[in-house]
Amino acid sequence: MTTTPNGSVTFSIDGTNRSTKLPVHKGTLGPDVVDIRKLYADLGVFTFDPGYGETASCESTITYIDGDEGVLLYRGYPIEQLAEHSDFIEVCYLLMNGELPSAAQLKDFKKGVTYHTMVHEQIRRFFDGFRRDAHPMAVMCGVVGALAAFYHDNLDINDPEQRRIAAFRLIAKVPTIAAMAYKYSLGQPFVYPRNDLDYAANFLYMLNAVPAEPYQVSPVLAKAMDRILVLHADHEQNASTSTVRLAGSTGANPFACIAAGIAALWGPAHGGANEAVLKMLGEIGHAKNIPSFIEKVKDKNSNVKLMGFGHRVYKNFDPRAKIMQKTCHEVLGELGITDEPLLDLAMELERIAIHDDYFVSRKLYPNVDFYSGIILKAMGIPTSMFTVIFAVARTVGWVSQWKEMIEDPSQRIGRPRQIYTGAPRRDYVPAAQRG
Ligand code: ACO
Q1: Would you say 403 and 234 are in contact if contact means Cβ atoms under 8 Å apart?
Q2: Exactly one of 339, 369, 408, 427 is catalytic; which is it?
Q3: The model's pTM
Q4: Whose CA is closest to atom 47 on ligand 1?
Q5: Is 49 a catalytic residue?
Q6: Ligand 1 mean position to 311 CA, how many Å?
Q7: Average pLDDT, consecutive stretches of 10 residues, N- to C-terminus, the chain (435 residues)
Q8: Is residue 57 a contact partner of residue 78, using CB atoms and an 8 Å limit?
Q9: Parallel, antiparallel or unpaired: strands 77-78 and 19-25
Q10: Quick check: 293 and 281 in contact, CB under 8 A?
Q11: Protein residue closest via CA to atom 14 of ligand 1
């Protein structure tokens, strides 16, 4: 650790004379951390923390979350300020390099990203192997992982220059692959990237343009897409980021690690939630059905969750949800959509839930996914692409966290332990002798 301990805790095991003093470290912000690395050597015990809710798995300078206060900082800058005043490409620079860029640094960085937006022509052929109705996240897992087969010059993770180029390649190519996955599902030709457009505008262009006619990217939609990307760019040691770090800790190449992150993001408890929110709103159908739906959510036997609500870390409003709700109104307003029944339904659902004791007592508030699906739908993006857009945004976070881990001299393979509750040692019995 780079911090020096500023305290200690003593652990002792009841009924024995075994005890040990463990150092306590203080980060810049957030709770102090007990360094338990000597625990097994000193006391012969492990800690038990399924879901890792109380475990700091690494030291990081990238993103800070205060879940009780609803605070999210990228490299110290509040998400609200970045969403309002910055843009995605500047946020990418910030996450990767730790500081906001000068004008010249930003220009260079943009050039570095746009230089890599195209994919190898042979990657096009992969798509023929997928069914037309394949979920685009399935395509993303496969094709992003397969990048490792094309860029052998970037696979030495110990070379800082190769790491740098791999990072550019991933940030630049993931939107191209995402758009290809979408076009393939429609049966439309792939659209090559346009490096004269900004990151978000180019992404929309690749999603929506067709060769048969000119396509103008709407600045309103480009701005909204940019903001969605900023809000999803990083989020500390969440499930997909931890997956990227764990895969990377083995020395796996960055393309494989990001593919692992995409796979983890796909689940409905994580990035798949925005898709699930829209499905849920469709099933509720009308505000008059909200009370019976809420009753179902509260019934432990129903297995129904209020999608877009609750978060492992936020026990308050997710600050991204607030910005997303505001953006949702702006986008619908600017698109001239005065009546969006799904938005009305979502707002009524939120109003009822945040006053209901079940949600209040469990500190369940809307998360980033509650409103993002409605914005994406208004932008004409199909539901199956929602999690893909999240993956496009989060790629920079994954890459930054992967790079930070590789550059950490104390990094070693991630290898959790367990409490074993299976059968004790026993001898094999031949089938004929089993009772
Ligand atoms: N609807 C109903 N009840 C819920 C919800 C929900 N959305 N979320 C949590 N709860 C309940 C749990 O059943 C539990 O109740 P209990 O104490 O009576 O058993 C209590 O609240 C605590 O929940 P946990 O499961 O311990 O919360 P955890 O931190 O493990 O889960 C999670 C967080 C997975 C996000 C959960 O809230 C959830 O499934 N939400 C819906 C899916 C969703 O929106 N995911 C997106 C997360 S944001 C992101 O990934 C970008």
Answers
A1: no
A2: 369
A3: 0.92
A4: 270
A5: no
A6: 6
A7: 86 90 95 95 95 95 95 97 97 98 97 94 94 95 96 91 96 98 96 96 97 93 94 97 98 97 93 88 94 94 93 90 88 82 89 93 91 88 93 98 96 95 98 94
A8: no
A9: unpaired
A10: no
A11: 362
